[in-house]
Amino acid sequence: MFSAKGLSMKQLSLKSRMALGVALLFLCFCSVMGFFALTYFQQKFKESIFTQQASLVSSLADDLDDELVFAQRSLAAFAPRLTPAVLRDADAAQGILDNKSTLLLIFDVLVLFSPDGRMIVESPFKPGRRGLDYSYREYFKKTVATGKPQISPPYRSTHNPGQPAIMLTHPLFDAGGNLTAILAGNITLQKDKFLTDVGRLTIGKSGYAFLCTDDRTVIMHPDKSRIMERVPASQNPLLDRAFGGFEGSGEAVTTKGVPVLSSYKRLRSVNWLLATSYPLDEAYAPLYRARTYFVSVLALGLVFMLILTWYAMRRLMSPLSRLTGHIEALTAAQGSGKPLPVESQDEIGTLSVAFNAMMASLQEKRESLQEAVRCAEEERAKSDAIIAAIGDGLSIQDRNFRVLYQNEEHRRMTGGNHVGSLCYEVYRKVDHACGDCPVALCFADGKVHKLERRNLPDRPVEYVEISASPLRDASGEIVAGIEVVRDITDRKRAELQIQTLNAELEKRVGERTEELRHSVREMETFCYTVSHDLRTPLRGIHGFSSILQQEYADRLDEGGREFLRRIAAAASRMGELIDDLLEMSRVSRDELSWEPVDLSALAGAIAAELRQSHPVREVDFVIAQGLTVSGDSSLLKAALENLMYNAWKFSSREQHALIEVGSRVEGGERIFFVRDNGVGFDMRYADKLFLPFHRLHAAEGFEGTGIGLATVQRIIQRHGGRIWAQGEPGKGATFFFVLGGP
Fold first, then answer.
1. C-alpha distances in angstroms, 373 versus 341, 360, 379, 385, 652?
2. Are 658 and 728 in contact (CB under 8 A)?
């Protein structure tokens, strides 16, 4: 909105909009140029202020250096008068110090110390102080240690008790280079001496200077109470940088939170820091005034440009205003063919001629449009007849899901004429578009979508199939959706009947499956009973044959003894076969107990048992670590025992046997394997490996019943996995298996 009365930009006259636009362009141009100019001016102004402040603090630092050097040189110039003879006479030394009025203009107190730190004399004289020990003072220690003049850090004076002071020293030596005395000059920081010039210095109205030692102790400051205080760290980053070695100017904030322009300079004669603080409000006052002047001039220029542009546009747009009046009169005449008058030969006259030609063309197009509308009505009547003959319901919804069209069949299916209503409100009685709406889906991807659903209870059709396709304009933009609704009630009822029949069939299949399971359980029970009952006669055969071998062997010839050995071996093999059959029955019958199983640990234990059972064999076991699975631990142990026993058995003829247990990942699944370098097998017979009682090496003298691998396969299959083998005669065999989950 343009004003408080609600006037919008479109309601303004063209000349007002042009005047406003030119003024805004002028404002933008002047603002950008002014911003850069002001920024440049501000940068140069700050650089100038920084340079001035740096020069000021540098000049002040040079003056302080000169004063300190002069004070030290004054002590050095006075030192030759203190001869060894004078030093031995305290009163004579006192008189010389008292008569040195020029030094007393520089120093508040002159002191003479003996080499051991005792005060010899001081001027002005104070009774009772001669002989006091000052060897603990830092300035005395450094003078004795270095043999050079020193300037002390600030300390609390004893001559003027409690007052801060500094001490300048100068050592005295005899002809042999031995220290004879130390001449010292005391400067009280709160008295009127050359150092106090720093505290009295003012910069602008409220700027000031101060002096600090390298340990952040204030020596001079306008606020006398701050002398001897330590400047806290981390409150003024620029000051912290200055104590770290920075010299120059920059913006900072004082400990009282006042923004200032600060400059820093170190003295040459002593490691002290001289600083100035100039409040930014004062330092940048000319800059702030210049900014105010610039904004004021810019505002006045904008007002002037707006008035000037509006006046120029008024003069330039008057012919166009008259043309606009003619056009409005022509519009009010409701299509009158009267042409506009051409008043000039400029652009406005050209526009009038073009407008007259446009009106003539529009008249022709209006007549053509009326003819096209008549033809369209005829085509629509034909389309309605074709749609009515389709037999399915048809409706059209716009992008807002508002119904634009319904044929009679669609109205019958949906219970009335709903043109102009929202489809989801009248078709499904909800307040938002359905999530599975095929029309919404075709709007989203531009494809045809179908949906079967049950109609509302009060509708004449129970089940419908809805097919929605997008309706596009000449540019390919989707403007609406065409919905075709077909009555599928009969088909759905037939499908429900089929589902009922399928459910009954599944029930019968379940009953038959349960009967089959019952038969299998009975068969397993029978096998277990038969296997168990066979043990009694086998034990008798094995027992009596053993008695015959032990007690009647001497009565039998070699042929009889061979027959007895064969009978005993056959009975033992029959017993092993019964045990294996019982084990296979248990594997198929027992319920699985799922738990984490460490195959590496199981393989290690099995390898240890095999080595213990045949200690004379040399076999290398390579067992990978971290082979963990989920399954029945007892069954998986039985499977791994069979596989490793097979590897042990069929590698027994190798001088350096190797049995490996590991895993690898292929196709996203983990495959476990047991590998040996034994006799191997022919891959042509690999499909018989896992069949009960089939042994590929029966003729080669390897013991076994042919049940072990069948048991392994049964265990792996019960775990939802699979097992297979690869081998080559004379080059060993590898058994692979994959386990499923619970």
1. 33, 20, 10, 18, 101
2. no
